[in-house]
Design a protein that fits this description.
Layout lengths: L8 E2 L8 E11 L5 E11 L9 E4 L4 E7 L2 E2 L5 E4 L2 E4 L7 E10 L9 E5 L2 E5 L19 E10 L5 E4 L2 E8 L3 E12 L6 E4 L2 E8 L5 E8 L8 H18 L7 E7 L6 E2 L4 E5 L12 H16 L8 E2 L5 H19 L2 H20 L11 E2 L8 H18 L1 H15 L3 E2 L1 H12 L8 H4 L5 E9 L4 E9 L14 E8 L11 E2 L2 E3 L2 E4 L3 E7 L6 E4 L8 E4 L3 H10 L3 H24 L9 H11 L5 H8 L4 H8 L5 H18 L1 H10 L10 H17 L5 H11 L3 H14 L4 H14 L3 H12 L6 H8 L10 H14 L1 H4 L5 H14 L3 H8 L10 H15 L6 H11 L1
Parallel strand pairs: 2-12, 18-19, 19-21, 22-24, 25-33
Antiparallel strand pairs: 1-23, 2-3, 3-9, 4-8, 5-6, 5-9, 7-8, 10-11, 11-16, 12-15, 13-16, 14-15, 17-18, 20-21, 25-26, 26-31, 27-30, 27-32, 28-31, 29-30
The structure holds ligand BES and zinc ion.
Length: 881
Amino acid sequence: MRTDTGQIFRIEDYRPSDYLIPETRLTFRLDPEATVVIAELVIERRPGVAPSTPLVLEGDGLVLRRVEIDGKPAGKQSFEVEPNRLTLLRPPAAKRFRIVIETLVDPSANTTLMGLYRSSGIYCTQCEAEGFRRITYFLDRPDVLSVYTVRIEADAASEPLLLSNGNPGETGPLPGGRHFAVWHDPHPKPSYLFALVAGDLGVVDDSFVTASGRKVALGVYVEHGKEDRALYAMDSLIRSMRWDEEAFGCEYDLDVFNIVAVSDFNMGAMENKGLNIFNDKYVLADAETATDGDYANIEAIVAHEYFHNWTGNRITCRDWFQLCLKEGLTVYRDHEFSADQRSRPVKRISEVRTLRAHQFPEDQGPLAHPVRPRRYREINNFYTATVYEKGAEVVRMIRTILGPAIFRQGMDLYFERHDGQAVTIEDFLAAFQDISGRDLTQFALWYHQAGTPNLSVSTTYDATAQTFTLEIEQSVPPTPSESRKRLMHIPLAFGLVGADGVDMRWTTVDGATVEDGVIHVRKRRHAVRFSGMATRPVVSLNRGFSAPVTLSVERPRDDLVFLARHDGDGFSRWQAFNTLATDALIGAFRSSLGGKPSGFPSEIATLAVAFAADGALEPAYRALALTLPGEADIAREIGANIDPDIIHGTRAELARTIAEANAATFGELYEALSTDEGFTPDAAGAGRRALRNTLLDYLSLLPGGAALAARHFSRATNMTDMAAALGVLTQRHPGNDRTQSALAAFERRFSDNPLVMDKWFQIQASVPGPGTVEAVEALTRHPAYSTLNPNRVRSLVGTFSSANQTAFHRPDGAGYRFFAATVLDVDGRNPQLAARLATALRSWRSLEAVRRDHARTALLSISSTEGLSTDLRDIVERTLA
Ligand code: BES
Ligand code: ZN
């Protein structure tokens, strides 16, 4: 494992490397404990670099066996080996020369899941961001692009399948029951996109003919016997390939495209050129074992990794500070794909909920950083919601500002200009500036400045002058990266809704540029005045969530009620109701704190049933409208002195109030949705199930509710309904016998399916209340649990710490102590996983004093431990800073 050097990498220190590696030939002699890697590299000195300048190659945990320079063994004095690097002290003065490096690695002992490792008997690799240096010494940086030829040698019986990037070449037998295969990737690529897989796997194959007529052989590789569960992933891949041609003009560029599912994987999936490697959780699905949510994730992640072929692989990042160049842009693309495959407003609401749940707290806490960070200690810790989700929002805003046609032309120009290059955010923005002739300098602050901007808005209507005025003021709170903020360019989509529910027209507007329903907020204060308003409109702001900001709007509650009924923008209509519910919950929280619990405004229950019963709305949308803000959402809105127990109680109370007021209608709707039409994983079927399961949640709060949920569970014919019923039982009736027997039945039925057992762990880790600390601790000793498998750890400990407010934040600190011990234990084997888990404590400062003290003590107990990984030390120290 890498030792912490305490080194900080800064963007201003970037300089191109002295040498390039135009060609890379790798030979792998695979062996479980002693794999030999021979790297034959063509090295080229960059123009202007002095001949014989030392060549410094990165390495990590490698055993060096030999070095050759231009065909001759390198003398001991000609190089220096250190744990982290190999330096050729006086390389040949020629512009081009060749070196051979032979290293030895132990895939079986590799528990970090970076570099070459084994997962359930399969050899596989993960090289992003800096894992290639765990395979051989190399210029392991994204701006060094090389053409790779890979020869894999392995046992023919145990590893019949040998895969790498690019197109397949020669194959054949070798002495001793071994065999080999050669792969060649003609597209120059950075080392982080290298991949190798060897093992015995089943396959689903298919093919795709590209727009220009290239026939591509497609394969999805999974454990033998699970092929049927890979069909949806294959279907998603084919739809992604077609969509990228239609939406972005991007065609695939090799003869084969393979996806391999492995069961031990730190992330969701990885876009290695022509050989994507996936966490099996994002490949395998059938009705019995996967929920609608799982299907949607598979579709989105298959698409995301495929889309990287152009946004990431053909055009890659100059350095890791530019990570959002590929990740933010590719998330934007996968969002658009899913919106086209499913329902656009439903998708948009889900995206915003995710952004607020993950990115807003990051931006408002000690780990805040710009979409393009300027410094890092450990790059693995920058695969964040800010880089990904806010990065995607920034791309979406470019489209909002330029309009769809110019945006597409800008993308075309970007692809054309930079194909085959490693580039920066400035290059990306320049394509849009050049195509549109617009100045995006102020807009670029979205990449450089951390923190969630706030817009304060108040309105005035002058009936005599028939004018309606919006006073808008922007502010950006200070964050650890910058204490003083500059003014941003915020594209604020809006509508002025008339009494009839239809958007009103105005005759003139002044105070800001307004184009195509978007106010361009650029100054600190704008007074935007609309004339020709015969009646007072109700303003709908940030339609479609056009900018990732918070809003503080001064307005009567009736305006929100009106928008929740009439806003023509689906997102904003949902938002209006969500804001009403949030305000009601915060009001009740405050009066509980003051010792005087209060009720809830009656229009919440009235609106809830109006949404539920509105047949003109899609069922999935109705389900989202009926979903109350989560406990973490409420905590974030309250901001300080959080008591999770009070929030939990308040939220449960509002749910009960809504259920009691609407018992009859909810019951009828639930029954009407109960006719089983058979399972298909499409958006329409998923929407009906989502609505029915949301109604079940409410109905479970009424007399007979536990029996109803138990019946829902036992009659379920698919995992969506089964997991939903188990969730309702455990959340709403944790102590009930029916709940215990449902949990036991689920365990008996799925004990041999680890991915389904993950749901069982997740559901139990989410049970509210103090007893869950001990329950989760006990589950770490369950036979299906493994502290070595990231999916198991995330399902149990990850869910407990990031999605269970009352148990994790138990007032006596027991949740934090268990958590700290687990994080330290995981860190010894898998630093990346430990560091990710540890981010669950990032909002510790907003807790009330007793919990805050316990949380701080737990963080200090981690940071004072010796031998922490760089990954974990970086997170814990920034969290405490
Ligand atoms: N390139 C990443 C995978 C990755 C992340 C590798 C961090 C190394 C370190 C991949 O494209 C990705 O972003 N995967 C996401 C899923 C995606 C749908 C957002 C993931 O793994 O969570
Ligand atoms: Zn990605």
